[in-house]
Design a protein that fits this description.
8 helices, 237 residues, EC 2.3.1.51, transferase, acyltransferase, 7-stranded mixed beta sheet, 41% helix, single chain, alpha/beta, 1-acylglycerol-3-phosphate O-acyltransferase activity
């Protein structure tokens, strides 16, 4: 209920302010489970991406969004709850398995599950290597994967910018559903998981027009931070 209240309040305002362009909305099923696999350029993706859809999109978000204290923590928790985010522990190992099970439960209940395969926001607007969790979800749930591309949201609200920049009109594109039925029953094969993930990322690259980088975004962020420290003369061993 809270999701629809937030959308009813914020939706008209966001439409008025950003006037997002929408392509391919007919590719998203009106009912039944599906995975929306999106690029992740900006914090703005959380509200720009689902905005055009008449269905609720449930996404998996890091637990830290729900554990903050004070007024900022309360507002952050309320926002992510309002946009349909379910908290997960992303520390790896058993936590990653629990996140997978949470995603499978959401899909078995017939919902749209929104996922950002890059795992974090792009540090520079390029498209980075996808993590294979999206492939496991697709093969175990046996639901279609719909590429979900955001354009120009990086310029609206890049990492580190506290408030969105106005005057930029973003685009949301929904690609044709990807069918991975030829791989069903092979979800424990690491090569298959990588092949499925790479196919999803290739579809996102074509849909978004982004330059692709064959490394994880988290690694790129670490490299950038090290380079910044080196430039300041504060590199640590």
């Amino acid at each position: 209920m809270f999701y629809w209240v937030v959308k009813a309040v914020l939706g008209p305002l966001l439409h008025l302010v950003f006037r997002p362009k929408v392509d391919g909305i007919e590719n998203v099923p009106r009912q039944g489970a599906a995975i929306l696999a999106g690029n992740h350029l900006s914090f703005a993706d959380h509200f720009i991406g689902p905005l055009p859809l008449p269905r609720k999109v449930i996404s998996l978000g890091k637990a830290e969004y729900f554990t903050g204290r004070g007024l900022k923590g309360l507002l952050t928790r309320a926002f992510f709850t309002g946009v349909g985010t379910v908290p997960i522990d992303r520390s790896g190992g058993k936590a990653s398995e629990a996140a997978l099970r949470t995603g499978l439960r959401i899909l078995r209940e017939g919902h749209l599950l929104g996922i950002y395969p890059e795992g974090t926001r792009s540090p520079d607007g390029r498209l980075y290597k996808g993590k294979t969790g999206v492939a496991r979800l697709a093969l175990e749930s046996r639901v279609p994967v719909i590429p979900w591309a955001m354009l120009d949201t990086f310029e609206i609200m890049p990492t580190g910018r506290p408030l969105p920049k106005l005057g930029i009109r973003p685009t949301v594109r929904y690609g044709k559903p990807l069918d991975f039925s030829r791989y069903y029953g092979m979800e424990d094969d690491r090569l298959v998981l990588r092949a499925v993930t790479d196919e999803i990322m290739y579809a996102l690259m074509e849909l978004s027009g982004q330059e692709y980088v064959d490394k994880y975004a988290t690694s790129a962020k670490i490299e950038q931070e090290r380079a910044a420290r080196a430039a300041r003369g504060t590199t640590s061993p």
